[in-house]
Predict the structure.
Amino acid sequence: MIPPRKTRTISVRGLRIGGSAPIAVQSMAATRTQDIPATLRQVKILEAAGADLIRIAVDSQADVEALGKIRAATTARLSVDLQENYRLAESVAPFVDKLRYNPGHLHHHEKHKSVREKVAFLVDVARRHSLALRIGVNAGSVAPEYKQRYPNDPVAAIAQCAIDHCAIVDDLGFHDYLISIKDSDPRLVVDANVRFAEARPDVPVHLGVTEAGMPPEGIIKTRIAFEQLLARGIGDTLRVSLTVPFDDKGREIAVGRELLDDIEHGRFRSVPPNFFSGLNIIACPSCSRVENEKFVELAEDVRTLTGYAKEHDLTIAIMGCRVNGPGETDDADLGLWCGPNYVNLKRGESDLGAYKYDEILPRLRSELDRMIGEAASQPSQSGQ
């Protein structure tokens, strides 16, 4: 049920991605990179689960030094997530097989340089070290210029950003790259990737629903996107992003291979008409950026606490770090992004304060009750 793909084939240290190559399944270490024993343990868990590629986040020179020690202790294929500091590419290149950069983060640093100059630096590093490159577009961190160009069309914003960056990399004469376009809403993921593939059918695509959340909902959201895209011949590698305890991270690989097998054999699952109705909990899958492991436990607690509100059309986002947390909670009705000691609570784009981990749940419930009450006091459409 997966038609032949039209994309070119690239190589990540012997792993072929795209074209007629098998669809690769990957994951990301959820531990802090500087915690070397924990990160190595996570790498081994993912290797044992059959991961083709393992991504690790790097955000500082201390992370780079830790990555060097991790590289010395494993032969796993490693990809690095550069986060906001694209200049670290030069330092991490000897230790990895693929670089991932987010176009939405390039404007943060060295503002006197153009986006093309920054991409050229990354391409030069990748070329000199024989690395593959992933252009990772995320709907939660869209570059400002695309928000301005497409204020009412988020699909166009992220799809065009991906198309433009591919053009830059092509113009620089580098072709060993792929693209990812992600969001927490699988419908947007489908629409954006279809739009991109129509414009650039030659570019290999990494699939994923970011912040899909906890099982089983997170698996369902991911399945929706994967079924719709893979059945169209879109998708050359994939990741299932689940909020699970660190020791269960191998489940992302198992679920990914299960979904692939189901789709390949025509075992599609229907989506109930009301699946997107009611309370929607978004939670990131955790990574080395998370500064307090209580984040995963907090996500579970939020789901339990808010069970009474499941009929209400509200979105609660729980994010584990300061890098993606602030921006990727903007579109939620209530957002929590977690630091080492405090959880920042937001209502839409408005900050409601920072609370200790043992204080946040009562405060969240208070605000949720307030929103439910406000909605109930509004006149219904039929009564107007």
The chain has two domains: 10-264, 280-379. The longest helix spans residues 154-171.
